[in-house]
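job 3f2a | input accepted
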Amino acid sequence: MPIYEYRCTRCKSKFSVLVRSWDGPSAAVCPRCGEQRSERVMSTFAYHKSVKDIHDESGEPSMESGPDFYKDPRNIGRWTEKKFADMGMDVPPEIKEEIDSARDGQLPDSLTGD
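job 3f2a | predicted structure (114 res):
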């Protein structure tokens, strides 16, 4: 059973109507003002994004520390990578491996207490 959306021609409010037949109602009554004339409008839809997509679309996180700074996995190791780049050096492979592991959720033993 489809749900159609309508806009009232008098008060311009938008409302939904559950249609119990395939024909659909020819007109829907506005629940707000009682107007019997309404026009059918295009329904919106939801598009769910992953946390990674949201991070990718929001761009590079700021280097300013806040209470949630390290809740963003992109921030793990960013300071170290930036300092190596500032000095014109490449990040050593073993450090790069530790940073990448931390970004994937595997923290170094020194941080886990093992």
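job 3f2a | The beta strands are 3-8, 14-18, 38-41.
job 3f2a | closed
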